[in-house]
Specification:
By secondary structure, this protein is α/β, with parallel strands linked by helices. Helix 1 runs parallel beside helix 2, helix 3 packs across helix 5 and helix 4 crosses helix 5. The longest helix has 20 residues. It starts with 11 loop residues before the first strand and ends with a helix.
Length: 203
């Protein structure tokens, strides 16, 4: 599988299977609740990306952002849409229970050229927001262009450019899935907004 770690990589990988859908998770740190956990979500009706970051206080009492995990939720494309949303909800419950984030960051809705795809994305987004709110997490929304500008310096940056910037910011050697990268971008933008609101506004 393209999601397997490189030879000699000591980072932890886990493959969580929940019935007809899968969560591939890449984790660089054990999930210790030191300060605050943020879960970024890139919703989709077939693939939903997620990224988990931790804001921690180091020995010098300064706050830093650390990568915890990222991955994707894969839903069976041939499954009826309503059942896919049910499975997405259960997958979100599993993620929220495992990491227990205080905040969940999700992209604001946008209307694409394909109305059917936009409506399905809206449903997936609603499921993710509902499960996040039910877990007690605060739900924060950002426009995609705003996040791209903050991470890569341009609202029109490509997904690949954002991905490369994230790898440098979070010190991750590789991010295998664009969906996971998009989710990490949401979480990263929010984390740095909390630590230094002027940092990204000045870019």
């Amino acid at each position: 599988s393209g999601l397997l770690p490189a030879s000699g990589d000591i980072r932890k990988w886990s493959l969580l299977s929940f019935g007809p859908y899968l969560i591939f998770a890449f984790s660089t740190h054990s999930c210790k609740h030191l300060a605050m956990l943020i879960l970024g979500i890139d919703p989709g009706s077939r693939i939903t990306g997620f990224g988990v970051l931790e804001i921690i206080k180091n020995k010098s009492s300064t706050m830093t952002v650390r990568h915890v995990s990222h991955g994707v939720i894969l839903l069976e494309a041939k499954m009826p849409f309503a059942l896919r949303m049910k499975e997405l909800g259960e997958s979100m419950q599993s993620l929220l229970e495992k990491y227990k984030p205080e905040q969940v960051v999700i992209e604001k809705i946008f209307l694409g050229k394909n109305a059917d795809s936009a409506f399905k994305l809206g449903h997936a987004r609603g499921v993710a927001m509902y499960e996040s709110a039910c877990s007690g997490a605060e739900v924060i929304e950002y426009a995609t262009r705003l996040v791209k500008k903050g991470i890569a310096g341009s609202g029109g940056a490509s997904k690949e450019e954002v991905q490369q910037c994230l790898q440098r910011l979070l010190k991750i050697p590789t991010i295998q899935r664009i969906d996971a990268s998009d989710a990490l971008a949401m979480a990263t933008y929010h984390a740095y907004q909390m630590l230094n609101p002027l940092l990204f506004k000045s870019r």
